Amino acid sequence: MALEPGKVVEGKVTGITQFGAFVSFDNGKTGLVHISEVALEYVKEIKDHLKEGDTVKAKILSINKSGKISLSIKQALLNERAATRRSAPHKRPPKKPDDFDWSKKTSQPSSFEEMMAKFKQDSDEKLQDVKRGLDSKRGSAYKRSSGSY
Asked: Which distant-in-sequence residues (6+ apart) come within 8 Å of 34 by Cβ?
């Protein structure tokens, strides 16, 4: 098995330290999973997540010139999740309450006059809201510019 960055490989945990876990592969090479790359959540103690002899899947992050292999179990999990999302059938996202028109629907169409009256009423309410907002802003700006605190 050729080891190259970006590839997800399976190996066995051979050692655990305070800063990470060592994982060895079938070809005899060993890599390190840093404590920050062990799990999706915050890891305080590696022993809570891994133990020697566990078989894990890890993504190869890098291989430096001296042959040290940097691994990530977290990114292997994220890749796995992304793959299952892609293969799952697409579902429509749930509607938000703001997306739903809560106004009552009448069973018969309204007359033109009724629709115009409703439109005028809605417009007047919106204009009042805008004016209230502007008045409150003007009042606070006036107080600041007058110099009296």
From this structure: 19, 20, 70, 72
Q: What radius of gyration, in Å, describes the C-alpha atoms of the chain?
A: 31
Contact criterion met (CB below 8 Å) for 37 and 51: no
Nearest to 18 by CA among 6, 1, 32: 32
* Last residue in a domain, options 57, 87, 117: 87
Decide: pTM greater than 0.85: no
* 74 and 13 co-located in one domain: yes
Residue 3's Cβ-count burial label (10 Å; 0-12, 13-18, 19+) is middle
Q: For 64-83, how does the pLDDT look when each residue is reduced to its tens digit (9 = 90+)?
A: 888 889 999 999 888 888 77
pLDDT tens profile 88-126: 666 666 566 666 666 666 556 678 888 888 889 999 998
Do 58 and 113 fall within a single domain?
A: no
Range of the domain at 24: 8-87
- Please indicate, yes or no, if residue 132 is contained in any of the structural domains: yes
